[in-house]
Amino acid sequence: MPTLRLRSGQDAHPSTSLRARCPMPHAQCPMPPPFLYMSELPPLNNETIWAILNEEIDDAAVNRLVWLYLGYRWDAETGKWNSADVAAEWRQEYPEPPDFIDSRPATVKLTRSTPPENKQLLKEKLGFKGYKIGEFGPRQTRRATMANWLMGFMESGV
Question: What's the pTM?
């Protein structure tokens, strides 16, 4: 599969970069967008949650996991997102899935959508003690928020 060039000049494989976009129209693009790789996502379990926290899974895959469990589905025939299974409060604000790593407002919404009893699941169920001061930034915090939300989804048994 060809490599895409990002605006910053960095190379990015389409399966690992949300910013990568084929310059050709969707129907002619030989490179499927990264969100089509839903079938390659890891299973939703404690090992995956730890892999998110330990940054063993790339940001694009973590986003795709959250998108999947929020209900977003890519329709290859139309080249558009199908959000029919997405809760109305998400669908109205985000008709297409947001990049939780780059979007603070989307991550805040994810935090607010977590029921109070699920706010500490990483600590309670996994024993996650958090990141050490000076060793984390917004990206790690957002990944932890996503991991906690996914843990809550797992716990709900849906």
Answer: 0.74
